[in-house]
Structure formats: C-alpha cells, structure tokens
From TrEMBL:
<dbReference type="Pfam" id="PF00777">
    <property type="entry name" value="Glyco_transf_29"/>
</dbReference>
<dbReference type="InterPro" id="IPR038578">
    <property type="entry name" value="GT29-like_sf"/>
</dbReference>
<dbReference type="GO" id="GO:0000139">
    <property type="term" value="C:Golgi membrane"/>
</dbReference>
<comment type="similarity">
    <text>Belongs to the glycosyltransferase 29 family.</text>
</comment>
<dbReference type="InterPro" id="IPR001675">
    <property type="entry name" value="Glyco_trans_29"/>
</dbReference>
<keyword id="KW-0808">Transferase</keyword>
<keyword id="KW-0472">Membrane</keyword>
<keyword id="KW-0333">Golgi apparatus</keyword>
<keyword id="KW-1133">Transmembrane helix</keyword>
<protein>
    <recommendedName>
        <fullName>Sialyltransferase-like protein 2</fullName>
    </recommendedName>
</protein>
<dbReference type="GO" id="GO:0008373">
    <property type="term" value="F:sialyltransferase activity"/>
</dbReference>
<keyword id="KW-0325">Glycoprotein</keyword>
<keyword id="KW-0812">Transmembrane</keyword>
<dbReference type="GO" id="GO:0009860">
    <property type="term" value="P:pollen tube growth"/>
</dbReference>
<keyword id="KW-0735">Signal-anchor</keyword>
<keyword id="KW-0328">Glycosyltransferase</keyword>
<dbReference type="GO" id="GO:0009846">
    <property type="term" value="P:pollen germination"/>
</dbReference>
Amino acid sequence: MRILRLGFVLAFSSGFAAIVIYITGVSNLNALSVLSEDELEALQALQTDFGKCVRANGLGLEAVSGEGYCQVSINFPKDTIPKWKDPKTGEVEGLSYSFNLCEAVATWEQVRNSTTILTKEFIDALPNGWTDYAWKRINKGVHLNNCENRTLCMEKLSLVLPETPPYIPRQFGRCAVIGNSGDLLNTRFGKEIDAYDAVVRENGAPVQNYTDYVGTKSTFRLLNRGSAKALDKVVELDESRKEALIIKTTVHDIMNQMIREVPIHNPVYLMLGASFGSAAKGTGLKALEFALSICDSVDMYGFTVDPGYKEWTRYFSESRQGHTPLHGRAYYQMMECLGLIRIHSPMRPDPNRVVKWVPSHNVISAATSASEKLLRRAGAGSSDPLRACSIIRRGIKRKTTAIPSPRKAAIVHQKLVKGTTMYPLEHHPGHGQLCIARPYDPSR
Ligand SMILES: *[C@@H]1O[C@H](CO)[C@@H](O)[C@H](O)[C@H]1NC(C)=O
Ligand SMILES: *[C@@H]1O[C@H](CO)[C@@H](O)[C@H](O)[C@H]1NC(C)=O
Ligand SMILES: *[C@@H]1O[C@H](CO)[C@@H](O)[C@H](O)[C@H]1NC(C)=O
C-alpha cells in the first residue's frame, strides 16, 4: 500500500513537473516567436558582448548565460568570502546573482528619457493622482483619508512640488555619483570628482575634512527618510547651501516645518522612479537613476566592494553593515557592462579607463527594441521616442527661465520628443509612461 502510494506521488509529481516544463517551455516559445531572426541575433549579441565585458572589467566576476535570450548570472570567484548576513534570516549572501538583461536594457533606456522629479502637473494628470498617489506620498497619509481635503494635501506637498520638472534629460554633461564606502579613503579622487559638471552625494556624507578623497563640489543630494528628518543638519554639509535635495521617500511634517522655520533655502524635491524590483532599492541605485535621467554620462565612486573587501564601511563614521554588498556590486557591474555607468575604485583608479567590450550603441538599441517586444512593453516595435506614452495630457509651457541655456544634447533631445515630458508609471505592467505634451518652441 505504502509503495503504491509512493508510486502515485512520484507519478503525480513527475507528471506535474512535466506540465510545468511544458507550460513554461511553450510560453517562452510563444514569447520568442514575436521576434525576427535579426532581433534574436541582437539579443544574442548583447549576451555575448556582455559576457566579454564582465570578464574584462569585473575583477574576477564572470557572466554566465542562462535560459533563453535574457537570463544571465553574474558569479563571484569561488574563494570569495561573503561577509554580510541577512539580519532577518541570518544567512550569508550568495556568490551568484541572476539578472534579466532584457528587462534591464529596456527599463534603463527608458529612465534616460524620463523625469524622476515629482511635479504637480504629474499628480494632476495621473488618474486618481491626488486620492491615490499623492495621498501615499504624504507620511501619515492615513489621516488624510484619500486626500478628501485636497487643499490640505496640496499644502503638505507644496514646499516640495514644482509645477513642471526642474530638470530635463541630458541637461548635465558628465556627472559623478558618490557613495559612502570606506574604500574612498584609499585613493585621492577629490580633484577628479570636482571636475565633473554635476556631483550627486547621499544622505549625511560630509565633504569637510575629506576633500582630498571626495572633493568639495556637490550639486545634488539623495536623501532617505532618516536624513530627510535631519534636513537642518544635512544642509550644513554643503557650505554653498545651493545643493538640491532629492527625497526618495514620503514628505512629512517635521521636514516641512524645518523648511519653513530654519529656514532652508535649498531646492527640495521628491523623487519619482521606475520599479526595478528587489535588487534596486538602496539610495545608491536611486542616485544613479536620478543621475541617468539628467546627465549624458554617469561615473560612480565609493560604492564598490572589490576583491579582498573585509567589511562594508563608511568613510566618515564607524563601520556599518550596509546591505547586500555583493548583490549590489554584481548589479553595478551589470550596469557598467550595459554602458550605463563607469565604476571607479581603488582597484580601477585610472580616470581615463575605457570599459572594454561594452556592447555598441547599435547592439544596445537593437536589443532594447527586441526586449520591448519580448516583454510586451507599451509601444514595442515602434521607433517613435513617444512610443511608451500610454497616457497623454496637455501641459503648460515651461518658464523659459526654468532651464537657462540648455546644452546642445538636451536641445536635440527636446526636439526629438517635441518638448514632451515623460514620467514613469510605477507598477504599470507594460512600463507605459505618462506624457505631458507642452507648447514647444523649436527655435530654442
Ligand atoms: C530616448 O530618446 C532618444 C532620443 O534622445 C531616442 O533615440 C530613444 O529611442 C529614446 N528611448 C526610449 C526608450 O524612449
Ligand atoms: C481643508 O484644509 C484647509 C487647509 O488646512 C482648511 O483651511 C479647511 O478648513 C479644510 N476644509 C475642510 C472641509 O475641512
Ligand atoms: C572636521 O574636523 C574638525 C576638527 O577635528 C571637527 O571639529 C569637524 O566637526 C569636522 N567636520 C566634519 C564635517 O566632520
């Protein structure tokens, strides 16, 4: 009887497995069948170049192609000793991370053309923008009961809510994003960092007493909730008091009160962003996302856990555990090998380092288009830069003083998109965008 039952369980589970394989196999085939030979080749080329790039620049990391045309895993050398433990499960970090290259190219390419600053025109245009979205962006929103009193909600957001976006894509040329890793103290990157057009820092990172290592320039600062609550201290870190402060979480009363009463004259904005899933929640990645949405090129410093790292430390305070350092490192390596960023660290100190084997512009753009089709993204298959606009609204003309004398690359982009602002729609299944078309003066 027992043997019979075991036999049944086996037959049942293998049958079940067969069905699962059948279903996933078929859906993969179906998905791939939307692609032409050329498009499949583009995805193949992306994987091949990507693998070579990781080998050439990854300091021992290796990319291994997985199932289908999109999956890759990035593996650390076998002798890497992971140091970080998940405080919840007590497990140490793994040495292999899988990524979906198709999702990464499609999503990050979109970030480059989007605005990542929350504006009033966005909330006004978004279906249920005030009752759902704005309501959730205000801490203690529960008391506001879906922004039943709209005036009150507007009042709470007013200090951080511009009417139209304060920045446009490609507004800045070369940008540097500075993390807080202790390894910054191993190389004097200060002068190099100060030579960028814009510098993005994070949370409570000081420059005073560390300028040889981290430079003095500071154009933007990305803040998490904790730092936003200490806004009065944070603004003191930049002597010019001109730094724009970008808050990645909700707005709350303590912060508003400081802005009014201290008072704080720096521009303060809330960040709006794409959803990248669990790999990409930290302030570091948000800072890269913000920089990629306003800069031509983005270089990063002070994020790495290169071979031989012992502990994730901060350059300005007691060592701190940080979070998922190896996962982060693998993700940043993926970004470097998709041509999005360039990583600088004590082990890659050459400011003119060329990232070898980065897939060419042609490979990336063919793979992006193939990925959009494969993932059934909004507007896939079209070359119109406005293809992903799933909601289109008319907006007001931007004040000409808002962005004084934009760079050529920014003007070229504005012409291509006819002055349209694209906002990411979080959790939209096809990654559609909310687009605000505005009267556009092509002579500018
Ligand atoms: C982004 O804009 C550029 C033009 O600046 C365009 O060529 C490209 O297709 C756009 N990409 C996406 C994903 O919209
Ligand atoms: C809505 O909020 C405003 C601003 O705080 C307040 O003046 C007004 O009395 C409120 N309206 C209602 C109906 O509660
Ligand atoms: C810089 O060093 C001085 C003297 O040790 C100290 O008083 C000051 O607080 C330091 N500044 C920062 C931002 O750490």
